[in-house]
Write a sequence for this structure.
């Protein structure tokens, strides 16, 4: 999106509000059900120290199932890939179309996971710096 004027002293920079984009491939290893990459129905909701909270279409998995998550996140032009096998440790109904699941990883590449976490850590630092600047420290 381009602005109709160029002013270096804008109060807000629209780029400050761009989010991390995540493309997720989800496969239920227990049942064999798959969800395609870039599916708007599979969404990353939360990053935890040893897992994730993900929104998936209803009836795609259940508590105790094993799933494979193949995720590529993009932030500020950088792309980071992560793949891991996890166990569904929480399963809640969000609405009639989607479920909210919590997964803990059983198999993963530790370097990929650390790079994945770093993307979210950097974004958190940017958000904190933004609010500190707005607040006037």
């Amino acid at each position: 999106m381009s602005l109709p004027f160029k002013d270096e002293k804008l109060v807000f920079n629209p780029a400050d509000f761009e989010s991390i984009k995540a493309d997720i491939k989800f496969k239920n290893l227990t049942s064999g059900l798959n969800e395609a990459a870039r599916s708007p129905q599979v969404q990353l909701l939360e990053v935890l120290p040893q897992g994730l909270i993900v929104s998936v279409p209803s009836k795609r998995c259940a508590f105790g199932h094993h799933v494979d998550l193949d995720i590529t996140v993009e932030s500020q032009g950088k792309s980071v890939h992560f793949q891991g096998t996890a166990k569904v440790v929480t399963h809640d109904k969000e609405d009639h179309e989607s479920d909210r699941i919590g997964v803990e990883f059983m198999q993963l590449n530790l370097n990929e996971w650390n790079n994945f976490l770093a993307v979210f850590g950097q974004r958190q630092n940017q958000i904190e710096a933004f609010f500190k600047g707005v607040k006037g420290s």
In short: The first helix runs from residue 110 to 135. The chain has one domain: 18-135. Residues 28 and 104 are 14 Å apart (CA to CA). The mean pLDDT is 79.
